[in-house]
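User: Show me sequence and structure for the first protein, then do the same for the second.

Assistant: Starting with the first protein.
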Amino acid sequence: MTTSRHLEQVLAHAESRLAATGARRPTEVLPLYKKFLKVEEHRLRLNHQAGGGGREICARRAELVDVLLRYVFGGAVANTSGNGERKVPLALIALGGYGRGELNPFSDIDVMVLHHQQAAKISPDLEEMVNQVLYLLWDSGFKVGHSTRSIKEAIAQANTDMRTKTAMLESRFLAGDSDLAREFRAQFRSKCVGAHEREYVAMRMQDQVARHNKFGDSVYLQEPNLKSGCGGLRDYQNLLWMTYFKEGSLSTNQLVGKDWLSESDQRRIERAYDFLLRLRTDLHYATGRATDTLHINLQEQIATRLNYSPRNGQLRSEALMRDYYEHARNIFRVTERITEQFVSGYVTNKTRALFSFLPLIGADKTPIGDSFFVRKKQLHAARRDVFRKESEPMMRAFQLAQERDLDLSPELADLLSRSLRHVTRTYQYARGPREIFKSILSEKGRVGRILRMMHRVDFLGRYIPEFGQLTCLVQHEFLHRYTADEHTLVCIDKLDALAETNDPKLIAYRNILKQLDDPLVLYLALLLHDTGKAVGARPHSEGSALFAQRVAARLQLSSEQRKSLILLVDHHLTLSRTAQQRNLDDPATVMEFGHIVKHQRNLNALMLLTLADGQGTSPEAWSDWKESLVWQLFHETSRYLADRESYYEQTRIERESL
């Protein structure tokens, strides 16, 4: 095994500083160890500030602690043995993240002392030796997780507690009796892994669901948890732990080429994991403690420390968080898909060898033409090359999911993601996909789920690149709680919900939606209403209107549809702002607004868009007071549009009678 340049430097420094400690009690020479650590920690911080990768810096810190512990363990053993000979075989084992060789600045140090003693209670000499190691680590500022066990005790504990089993799964020999460590690994593999695959994978999946629920159940939180949130470090690690139980390797390499993970997806999640480790390292440095939540008041500071600069009208913190969301999204999507495949029991000739303990899928399937079939309410591709010769079935898959209320199977979602190269400019202008897409957006109350489905596999952003620019775009505004793409999809969800609502407050909106003749234009307006934010347009509505004009031409909307779409996008804030900022008792206000919307059909669509945009922003953006003002303007404008000639005279008489 080759020694890294960094490790060579640490070893040389340790030789010069710590070799003189000899057989003295480690706690007696604590200042020497502290000084050694201070110098090496400073070196690591400089390496991080110079742009060192997340994995690189974490691995170097683990190497540093390895060297320290070997000296401490050696000194403690020699001191308690008297003559330097061990009475009982001992081995010092690294566990958990430390065993994995990944330590952020204030990560816990998890270690286990293995012994061969058979007595129920360990000997005083062994207890003294362990205490010397622990006291030095505590006095040096480390937070230590520790245990002292025989192999039998370690195996029993691992099979009792999943967390312990997972920590031991990544165990690594540090110092002492290497034969004892090898015996432990062999017994762990045979007694804790073999015949426990199904049970362990099920528990890890349950743990993932519970963890996601606890930490917000969304990638797009304003203050994400880097370790345990959706798309966080733990999701990536969870995938590796499950893979280990059959392949015996903690690496994504085992999943590549076996129908589980494409090389491009592997590159994405490896880059994402490195990014998250680097971000977590800087978060520890910035706060001076172990923490995983990236609070909003720290984001600008950390963005500056990581050398982000403002771009496209975005703040440094917004640029940082956009990178975060993109990376977390990649980890979340890939790990969720593969986990779903584990649950479904999906197998091919290649994956069968990797997860042979999974159940075989039955043959109960309903064909849909030559390209697809349905099994257990999921849409599947009939063959892996279904999109190779003809790419229109890509859009057709989403239409079928909408028509038959189906989900995409994990395999079909993966296949769509791998086939995005077929969504070219020619495809964007092709008649077949265009007509299907317009049909999908014409189904009242059934659009949001399908657009989310498209976005989850990156198809939506490829087919409508104007929307694709919003992916993970951060909005650090007072009212916005979501990234721009998530906000847009939430707005569409809110519009969908009106179709079947029984909420007394929303019945009036439901009636307006029911009267709407052409929902395509309204859904398309919602999809595009914030696209101007991607290019920093001020106001963004003007930039969004230009993008809407381009999309309207590409989708070959009629002249009337095109005019309505551009009006709705350009004025998606006008109804709310006019209602809140102008005198609604002044007929001139109503007449001016009426000239903008032109007719009742546009006013109805704008009313629904305003509600969806307000509800999709945050509760504060759509209060009862704001809603009452909007309704007042709506009703007054409806009166004006119904009879423009007599409106001014009627309002004048009404005002004079007050």
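Switching to the second protein now.
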Amino acid sequence: MAADSVQYHLERMVPELEDLQERGFFSAAEIKSIVKQRTAHEYRIHRIIPLKSDFLRYIAFEENLERLRRKRKRRMGQEKEAASHGKPSDPFEQPQSSLSDYSIMRRIHGLYGKMLKKFSGDTLLWVQYFDWCSKVNSSKALGKNFAKAIQLHPTKPTFWVMAAAWEFEQNANMTSARVLLQRGLRINPESQKLWLEYFKLELLWIEKIKERRKVLFKDGVPGGATDPGQDDSKDESSEGVTVPQLQEEAHLSATSLERDPTVSSSTTQSSDTAALLKPTLTAMQQTLLNVLIPRAVYRNAIKTIPKDFDFRIAFLGIYKEFGAETLAGQEEVYESLREDFGDLPAAQSVLAERHVDGVDPTDPAFPAALKNAVQAFNIAVEQLPSPEMWERYADFLATSLSRVEEEHLTKYLTRLLLKTITNAHTHHLATERMYLTWAQHSAPLPVLQAALERLPGSAQLWISTISHSKDEAKQELYEKAIKAVQKDEQHVIWTTYLQSLTQDWAPPITPDSDAPDSFSSISDQFTKALSILSSTPHEDTILSLHLHFARAAGLGRLRSVYDRLIGTKTRSTSFYRMCIAMETEGAKRPVSVDMDMVARVRRLWEGALSSNVSNIDTWLDYIHFEMTVPKDFVRAVQLYWKATKCVSDQEEFVRRYEEMKGGL
């Protein structure tokens, strides 16, 4: 059955291949090679259980083939003038020259169609297809397949957004873009992405209208009712995304967004793009251009998703992207934050910082704006006396201090920052970050010692205290820190402590030197750290430090250390790889290979495989080692056959193995 299908598709390629050869794009030998490769790809995609990778490789082959055909066509002077303008031809349109000019592109579309039919649930494949269609300017395919993707995945906001963006940006059809996003929100009312994209779409539309009106009616003199460079009425009548009634929306009533009179007006003549480009606007049309619809979208969004602070901040961020003309909308967001999140420190911080938002520190208005922000923060810390509120106040002052250069402002902010942190400390509300900031602007050691009395479990405070202490006191402080710090932060102390021990260590000048060698005592500290941090995400960090320290002491000590570590516990693949990297460092340079090293590295590779026998990278690197260092090709082949039975993806392993062999 598969052979018949393959033969059928190959026979259909004959006219195209003949045309490619007749026009001189490919030689007879190249045509045979194309047939051979297409045959192999066809058999892969027609097997009982084809893989996504089968289709993707076939598509990649066809794309490279089309790229080569175009290149040779240009070189031979056969490229049509229309194609030289930078717009690829639409494969669904009538061919301009001959069969080979569009057959490869049509085949790629067909391959995508088959793949998406087989793997229709893979949203990433749909997105990849849309990206490719956009790149080759295949508008009809986009319109048709956006609708298909939405029908299959109506609860995936990505497809609604992509379809609406395409309608607005490519077809200049704002009405269709609105309808798509409104339908998407009817099915997915809790989707923040859809709300934010719809909000941004309305702002983009308003900005576009205003820019067009500036061009048409600059200096207040009407320049005409239409812009010859952009005919929106023509674009909006072009074929777009037509999504039929979906089962998911059949029993859904109109949302509050669709019932909103302001939003519903966006589909009437008063908000039509062409109508808004006339010399004289009605009162309703003038109001629409004053972010009326985006404000309505925001009100309905927070009504649907009322308890999400970050969601509202996202709207505020979008407003700010569009500048001062959205100040009325921004004020509405701020007011809603004050009403609904007045007891949240983050909201109070946003409300206070708004006074200096967008004001340059060199602007004469900055001191007054800063004063207003400081007053707002002072009220906030009185109403919400919490560590987070005080910390946000201190962070604001520290950020402002880093922005200003004027001497008086710098002194004022420094004094105010220290006063704020001192007040928080007095009320037992200062945080770790506040103490660290305080230490930067004052005598550090007394501040940090006072901080540790309040927050003895803070790893960062201990590290900062130790760094500002005398060398002879550091050992004792590290020991105190290890006992005081909470378990989930002990890795910070241990890492810093071990780094301080190893960075100053140097091996004895000669093996028989009388100078004391502290290698063993430092190794004992590593052992202690590993016993405490065993099976935590930070264990590999300590192991890496230990191995590098041992390697600096000599290869013999490195081997002694990793042998002992392997003997005490099953180690991870990354650990074995670190050992192998240190063992094989410079292994290709010597004339004769150290076979003792080879034997050790082989044992390490076997250990790496024992921790994850299905890892493709480990098998390939092991084989690569055998081919390049001892050059034992017999063993390399044995490893290859063993790997094919163990790896997670045999086909991927074989492909990468062939690539590796080709690069040797």
